[in-house]
Structure formats: C-alpha cells, structure tokens
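Hi Q.,

Before the meeting this afternoon, I wanted you to have the coenzyme A prediction in hand. No need to reply - just skim if you have a minute. The sequence and ligand are here:
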Amino acid sequence: MNIIELVKKIPHSVSVRIKNRRRYRWMVKQMRMPDPAETVRPKYWKKCGVEVNGHFKVGFGVYFDAGNAEHIHVEDGVWIAAQCLLLCHKRNLAEYHVGDDYNKTPYKIKDIHLKKGCCIGMRTIIMPGVTVGEGAIIGAGSVVTRDVPPYTVATGSPAVVVKSFPERS
Ligand SMILES: CC(C)(COP(=O)(O)OP(=O)(O)OC[C@H]1O[C@@H](n2cnc3c(N)ncnc32)[C@H](O)[C@@H]1OP(=O)(O)O)[C@@H](O)C(=O)NCCC(=O)NCCS
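Predicted structure with the ligand bound:
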C-alpha cells in the first residue's frame, strides 16, 4: 500500500483533527509574534521622518506622503486603520487659468496633525492641512478636508461632525 492509499484510509474525523491542530499551532505562533501595527510600521514611519510623540498604531496598507513625511505629526495613542491615505501636498490652483499646464502649477504643502488618541477609520483619506483633534474618531471611508474638533465623530466625504461626546460627570 502506497502513502496516498494510506492517507485515504485515515478517517475523516481524524484528518480534520490533525488539520485543526496545525491551524491552532499556526495561530498560537502568530499570536506570539509582535504586531506589525505597533512595531515595524511605526518604526518605518519614524525613519521616514514623521514626527512622532509617543506610541501609535498603523494598520495594513496605509499610504503616507513619504516625500513630505516631516509634515506629518502623530501623537500618543493614535490608531490609523488599514488602507488610509495621508496627503500633505496638493496643487495650488489660485493662479491656474484656461490654457495653463496643470502639471506646472506649484505645490501647496501643509502639515497634518493627528492629536492624542484619535482614531482614523479604515480607508480614510486625510487631506493636507488637517488637524484631527484629541480623541476624535473618523468614520471608515471618509475624506477629511477640514479640522475635526476633539472628542467628536466625523464621517463622509467631505467629513462632517455627526456626533460630539460629553464630559464625564
Ligand atoms: C463612524 C463610526 C465611529 C460611528 O460609530 P457609531 O457611533 O457606533 O455609529 P452608528 O453605527 O450608530 O451609526 C450612526 C450613524 O452614522 C452613520 N455611519 C456610521 N459609520 C459611517 C461611516 N463610516 N460613514 C458615513 N456614515 C456612517 C450610520 O449610517 C448612522 O446614520 P443614521 O443615524 O442616519 O442611521 C463607525 O461607524 C466607524 O466607521 N468606525 C470606524 C471603523 C473602522 O474603521 N474600523 C477599523 C479600525 S479597527
């Protein structure tokens, strides 16, 4: 009897148990590994020049304006969820007229501030010059074009404040 016939003879319940054991071991190994959101990604951001004050977390596939990284300021406890986009530059359209070449218009570069403990929901775009206030929450899929006050929820495109949190009495 060859190995394939032998494997076929293993009862289904046994093979499921073996598979589950392997999955369990793999899961335990993953859990023991440091979370890249708290380790390698913030470290990489700092190396690129982002001004960091404390510890923050970055989800999978977040894009930031690496060429203007020094214009991004992140405070302690900030959570940037997966696939967000942080942009510090855009074209200055003040002097753009019919017949002009858009690609020759100068750039406007503005700082982004993510204040202490704010949370940027998945797939959010933060536009140049925006300050997200302390403890503020940005809804998933928002485009933030204006400052967001502390302890509020802002959602949509452009993001607007939809909720404000009260002081604890
Ligand atoms: C915005 C958010 C914080 C609101 O949470 P909440 O206060 O529990 O809100 P609710 O689910 O009760 O919804 C309240 C209203 O906001 C709307 N809403 C919720 N999330 C929204 C979003 N991302 N964009 C636009 N509107 C949204 C709801 O439709 C609802 O509208 P209604 O009152 O007209 O029915 C939350 O929905 C969100 O997007 N969190 C980020 C999630 C995320 O990115 N997770 C990954 C990180 S770990």
